[in-house]
Amino acid sequence: MTMQDNFSFSLRRLATGVAVAMVALSLSACAGQQGRKELTTGSIPKLTRPVQSMNATELAAAAERIGQAYERNPKDREAGLNYANLLRMTGRNEQALAVMQQVAIYHPADREVLGAYGKAQAAAGQLEQALATISRAQTPDRPDWKLKSAEGAILDQLGRSAEARLRYREALDLKPNEPSVLSNLGMSYLLTKDLRTAETYLKSAASQPDAGSSVRQNLALAVGLQGRFQEAETIAGQELTSEQAEANVAYLRSVLSQQGAWKQLAKAD
Fold first, then answer.
1. pLDDT digits (tens, 9 = 90+) for 71-90
2. Residue ranges of the chain with pLDDT lower than 50?
3. I want to staple 118 with a disulfide (CB 3.0 to 4.6 A). Which of 70, 103, 133, 234 is the partner?
């Protein structure tokens, strides 16, 4: 998967100082250790290999199979959660939201369901509603670090970076050194153009033993945005083919060469 797919750059937003679209944050925050790597188990069709290693065609086929199980029994919690997850991964955010609305009706007090519902709302652009849903899923006596991180991601999308970073730090108090939270915290600083601080947190995230591929790709992005393209390519190439890593860096170069985006980021840094 190329950097175009992972980060959905917007030239207009880059040129005005916003480095990367926030969808990746909202999708990764609730996910925690599993996220896009695994699906909830249950009486649904089993997948032959991890979701993260599938290409677009395979993801679409998996979504179709899981979707058929969901249609047979819309009340099935696992089928609904997995179907919505696959729909989001294939870019069908509105459909994923519709699925999660139904799942939430059948399981209104389920924290995992509410968290996934909030994530679907955020992916579909319903940020204020997502924030309310995530808040409803959280309980003061048993706070969930994944929900704290998800709330931070939504607050970042709303431009409330100080509140977002407080939520990430609260999540880290509950789950020290969690790479997905450290990564979201780093991306929060990247979005306010503090590239050096962003790189610090992303390096810490990438150094954790259970850091996923998306964490290292975020680090490659932060490094590349500082003009260190060869280093970014090396980081990205740890898990990508050489062609994919080169495509990522080439795309980053092309974005930063347009509309004075790199000059504005460099001035801010």
1. 999 999 999 999 999 999 88
2. 1-38, 40-43, 259, 262, 266, 268-269
3. 133
Question: Token digits for 162?
Answer: 């100080």
Q: Answer yes or no: pTM beyond 0.85.
A: no
Q: Which two three-digit tokens encode residue 104?
A: 């939430």
159-264: CATH topology: 1.25.40
What residue ranges of the chain are covered by domains with CATH 1.25.40.10?
54-138, 159-264
